[in-house]
Design goal:
589 residues, alpha+beta, PH-domain like, 4 domains, eight-stranded mixed β-sheet, five-stranded mixed β-sheet, 23 helices
């Protein structure tokens, strides 16, 4: 991002200063206005921990909404600690200019925000335009107009300045409250799922867990209202330490077992496991988040007690940072496993919801439960989706790629809707193709002419999807009917691609793909233009590569018969050159 006042200090970036990370909220680089002497941004955001930023100066509501800033409640951070943080950060990136001077720095703090990955990427993209005093500068455009001037100081600049070390315990308290705020938001997001699914099973377990969560929630609420953790409240919560650990460990193990099982199964096995255990998976995932919320609240209260004593005891002050570090490790691990598990189930539900005839099948653990609860995939997805989206925002709908190697009459949207859920974050679809397999009817036309047309019509094609990471193939009937794929080939496994320039006897063009494991051939309809088939082959050919270790192995396998032939005077064994009939024909791409 670039401040107009600094536009003369940086070269004009290519592409009008747009960044892919910024997407439609791109940071523009307006032309320098003569006579403009604005020296400072009207808002300063200082990232003190990854994803945690302190704001100096007002942030407009539309910017908060657009970048999805989440305000953090600082009720358990003392006034003294807030003042220390403000004073320390005011010296970074000319932050003090927002309040006019260092003495006014605390008054200018507008809040502390949790930033998602998209917001961080957007703000960090400004570094490509202009950097001044360790901060990225820029004019933020919303709806085609400048909404605000922002100075963004990344966490690396704070660390380099040594500020984080100076106010470590105070920042640890803020980080703990960020974690508590984040997990509390996830639990609130899942409240609809709780009422629809979770309370119908494991009532005793759920009652035990919610009692602990409520106890910690009440203690945190009272501490925020009082601005401190009283001895009475702390003793009440401290007595629950063992129970909190047991609950957290129970659901951590349950979720971990689900993840382990899914990691060991093939695609059909994963689908069966997810459908059979859907309700148990959701219960365990939600219970883990709830136990994590209670545990994080407990640790925040513990740190607040240590911080109060730590003003006179250095060991207690250091304990705050140890609590934050250990809680962060547990928090990130539990959140990662929960996200992975919910991702797997949500993706499966989304695929099933796109498939004809499968969206009404009950996702239940046992057949005898069918009369009690017939939750379809669509119903369960509706309940689960808010949590899934909060944990991991879904990718946007797939658009048709630049290269489509298929009949013009093909309904691409049907394939794209399902394929969307097979792609990973950041994966780009480059080619979509549909081959024309050998006509079964051609073999039977002479003897069973009436049977051949029906078999031709039922013959399944092969779907070919090429991304920047892999090649996905599937039988079209299995893909559209069951959401099943065949090959999933990493792009670096491509060894050879062959695309003959001439068509076969039926007027079709062929592409041969060779990997260390497979030899695959696709035949494409005679009415397809040569250029689109060639384009598909060209995309595949970009990855042709024989790693050095494979080349050495092939050379050794070739040399072995030569050496044996030389010793045994066997001409037949020595000859390794292909005969004329074996020599490859056509063009290698």
């Amino acid at each position: 991002m670039q401040d107009p006042a600094d536009s003369m200090e940086a070269d004009e970036p290519e592409g009008n200063g747009r960044s892919d990370a910024a997407d439609s909220r791109a940071v523009h680089c307006p032309a320098h206005q003569s006579g403009s002497n604005s020296a400072a941004a009207s808002t300063v955001l200082v990232e003190v921990r990854p994803g945690l930023a302190v704001a100096f100066g007002a942030i407009p509501a539309d910017l908060i909404s657009e970048l999805k800033f989440h305000p953090i409640d600082l009720g358990l951070v003392s006034v003294d600690d807030r003042t220390r943080i403000s004073a320390a950060l005011a010296s970074i990136g000319n932050t003090a200019t927002v309040g006019g001077n260092l003495a006014n720095a605390f008054a200018s703090v507008e809040g502390v925000y949790r930033l998602g990955d998209a917001a961080r990427a957007y703000l960090s993209a400004g570094g490509a335009l202009a950097v001044k005093d360790g901060a990225n500068l820029g004019a933020v455009f919303l709806n085609g107009k400048i909404a605000h001037q922002v100075r963004w100081t990344p966490v690396t600049a704070v660390t380099a300045a040594g500020v984080a070390a100076a106010i470590g315990p105070a920042l640890a308290m803020v980080a703990l409250q960020m974690m508590l705020s984040q997990v509390a938001g996830l639990v609130r997001t899942n409240i609809a799922l709780t009422s629809q699914v979770l309370t119908t099973m494991r009532h005793g377990q759920w009652a035990d867990l919610t009692a602990l969560v409520d106890t910690v929630d009440r203690a945190v609420g009272r501490a925020r209202e009082l601005g401190s953790v009283t001895t009475t409240e702390w003793e009440k919560v401290a007595a629950k330490d063992d129970d909190l650990r047991k609950q957290r460990e129970t659901y951590r193990l349950n979720v971990g077992e689900h993840v382990r099982q899914l990691g060991q199964l093939d695609t059909p096995g994963r689908r069966q496991y997810l459908e059979t255990n859907a309700r148990a998976i959701i219960f365990d995932a939600h219970a883990l988040l709830s136990s994590l919320k209670a545990w994080t609240g407990y640790q925040t209260l513990h740190a607040a007690r240590a911080r109060a004593v730590g003003r006179e005891d250095d060991d207690e002050a250091r304990l705050v940072e140890i609590i934050e570090r250990e809680t962060g490790e547990e928090f990130n691990s539990a959140l990662a496993e929960t996200t992975s598990l919910v991702d797997s189930l949500t993706r499966e539900l989304r695929i099933i919801a796109e498939l004809p005839g499968r969206a009404t099948g009950p996702l239940i653990g046992k057949r005898k439960d069918a009369k009690k609860a017939r939750l379809t995939s669509a119903q369960l997805l509706e309940a689960l989706q808010p949590l899934a989206d909060a944990l991991h925002p879904p990718a946007p709908p797939l658009q048709a790629p630049a290269v489509v190697c298929a009949p013009k009459s093909l309904d691409l949207e049907r394939y794209l809707r399902i394929l969307r859920w097979f792609l990973e974050d950041g994966e780009t679809l480059r080619v979509l193709g549909l081959d024309a397999p050998a006509r079964i009817g051609a073999i039977l036309d002479g003897a069973k002419g009436k049977v051949a047309p029906a078999m031709d019509k039922a013959a399944s094609r092969n779907l070919v999807a090429v991304t920047d990471r892999r090649i996905i193939t599937a039988k079209t009937n299995a893909f559209l009917g069951q959401g099943e794929i065949g090959h999933d080939i990493p792009i670096d496994r491509v060894r050879y691609v062959r695309a003959p320039a001439t068509r076969d006897g039926n007027g079709r063009l062929a592409i041969d793909l060779i990997t260390p494991e497979d030899n695959i051939q696709w035949l494409f309809d005679s009415d397809l233009d040569n250029t689109v088939v060639t384009a598909l082959a060209a995309v595949l050919a970009e990855s042709m590569n024989i790693p050095d270790d494979e080349r050495v192995q092939l050379q050794r396998r070739c040399q072995a018969p030569l050496e044996v032939g030389t010793e045994g005077e066997s001409v037949g064994t020595r000859s390794v050159e292909p005969s004329g009939s074996q020599a490859p024909t056509g063009d290698a791409v």
